[in-house]
Amino acid sequence: MTLIRLSGVTKAFPAPSKGAPPVVAVDDVTLEIAAGEICGIIGYSGAGKSTVLRLVNALETPTSGSVEIDGRDITRFGEHELRRLRSDIGMIFQQFNLFDSRTVAGNVAYPLEVAGRPRAEIRARVTELLEFVGLAGKARSYPEQLSGGQKQRVGIARALATSPRILLADEATSALDPDTTQEVLALLQRVNAELGITILVITHEMDVVRTLADRVVVMEHGRIIEEGSVFDILSAPQQPATARFVSSIIDDVPSGDDLAVLRERHPGRIVTLDMREGTSAQADVFAALAAHGVRVEVIHGGINDVRGRVFGHLTLAVTGDADAVARAIAAASAMASLTEEDTRG
Fold it and tell me: Cβ distance 169 to 198 under 8 Å?
């Protein structure tokens, strides 16, 4: 079931100076997010991803197009309906946005206090949430006494206080070190799996998407340029911007200087083998090569696992009699996708 739907959404801001054109932050974006899904929106600065987030929680209204939550067009909501909507959407931020003057418990309690919940209910809910995020012993601490990861856990607990159906994460791990990032991502996975909350994550870090998301949307210059399952995007990116993001975490195909070094160090023909689901097993391809009496050496590459699904590339140096090498490569090419990186005999 679709929970969030953007249909032909454009958001333009007034021109920064007289005579200049309006600034189009989001340009004709159509996007559907299913209930219970974790969707990652990735893009460089200025891609429009933060504006999409602000459109979903109605902090911005589209210049054109519609934004629907659970089948209702929120661009038509009045103030009362918007307040109810926002209680159904939690938000976590890159810089945590905690109140320094409030304790951990006080920060988590804040949205419940604003909603006018009874004190006993607030105390019980705060206790429950601090246990869930692993901060039961920090209720009376202040933000300045916490690590970055602990602050973000408080932010997550606060975002969950009103039992939202949707959680929006705005660069939620960008200020954290790698180990703490993994801990926070694991907590967000629990939020999704155990509480059934739909999560929309925006980030410029492909590793966050690989670890957390079910599906990824790539934005550039306000437009969606590519979207699909995390496996499909990582294993076969179609757009140059997507390929740049993927190469930041997966460097299994040599190019440029790396390829030049490999050519200098290894004689024979250099080929790159695309290994993914649906292709022959690696051992079968190697056996086909060896059957022609050639020498095969793995000189670059790697195999990646995305939630039990495997893909990757292996770059091979194939040496021996020129005719035998040609036959071996032809046989392997019939079994799997093979790209010639070097044509020297």
Answer: no
CA-CA-CA-CA torsion sign (117, 89, 55, 211): positive
| CA 92 to each of CA 52, 64, 122, 167, 210: distance values in angstroms, whole numbers, following the listed order | 15, 27, 20, 8, 19
For 163-197, write each residue's pLDDT tens digit.
999 999 999 888 889 899 999 999 999 999 999 99
Give the CA distances from residue 298 to residues 262, 272, 319, 326, 344, in Å, rounded to whole numbers and listed in that order.
Answer: 11, 10, 12, 18, 17
CB neighbour list of residue 299: distance below 8 Å, 6 or more residues apart:
262, 265, 266, 270, 315, 316, 317
- What letter would DSSP give residue 45? T
What are the b/e assignments for 240-275, b being 16+ CB within 10 Å?
ebbbebbeeebebbbeeeebeebeeebebbbbbbbb
- pLDDT band per the 50, 70, 90 thresholds, residue 281: low
